[in-house]
Amino acid sequence: MKVKSKNPAELQFFIGDSNLRFGLGKFALITALNFSKDPDVVKYKSMSSSMRLRETYLNNEANVRSDELKAAFLNCEEKEDVWKLGLCYLVDGLLMAQESSTKILMDMLSFVENEEDFFNYPWVKAISRENIS
Fold first, then answer.
1. Are 27 and 42 in a shared domain?
2. Do 89 and 127 fall into the same domain?
3. Are residues 90 and 116 in the same domain?
4. Helix (H) / strand (E) containing 117
5. Listing from the earlier edge strand, what are the strands of the sheet with 10-15?
6. What sequence ranges are listed for the domain DUF1985 (predicted)?
7. Cβ–Cβ contacts within 10 Å for residue 100, how many?
């Protein structure tokens, strides 16, 4: 379980009976996530233009909470959209360790429309379709 930290440069998790703290550098090393450079802002702005998933499954809401994303994923019946919503849910709930009442990163719903670019996004590079299929 992720624990709220007063220090933005560290992540804390409660595992077993221990409160574990990791600096971002150590967390990046452990998870193999790319923290070394910022993404190309222009490229990712163009990736965030699709609103299809938001319009189709999330009532075109401007803000969506993690529990609403989970419900959309669990209730979706379109195979490819189940995959895309599942990726968003995985990133939101596991990699970002969000609580169910936390707002999700809305751009993620657009980024996932282009799977190759989605998997090249720095926070997502550690997972791949082959590893989670």
1. no
2. yes
3. yes
4. helix 115-120
5. 2-3, 10-15, 18-23
6. 2-125
7. 12
DSSP class of residue 63 equals -
Tell me how many degrees the CA angle 42-47-51 measures, rounded to the nearest 5.
Answer: 135
**106-123 pLDDT, tens per residue?**
778 888 888 877 777 665
Q: What is the DSSP string of 89-110?
A: HHIIIIIS---TTSBP-THHHH
pLDDT tens per residue across span 53-102: 999 999 998 888 889 999 999 999 999 999 999 988 888 776 666 666 67
Q: What are phi and psi of 30, to 5 degrees?
A: -65, -45
Contact present, 12 and 3 (Cβ < 8 Å): yes
Strand partners, 13: 2, 20
Residues 6 and 47 in one domain: no
What CA–CA distances, in Å, run from 37 to 2, 28, 41, 110? Answer: 24, 12, 11, 21
Q: What is the pLDDT of residue 131?
A: 46
Question: Half-sphere exposure of residue 104, counting CA atoms within 13 Å on the CB side?
Answer: 28
Q: How many domains, in total, are found in the chain?
A: 2
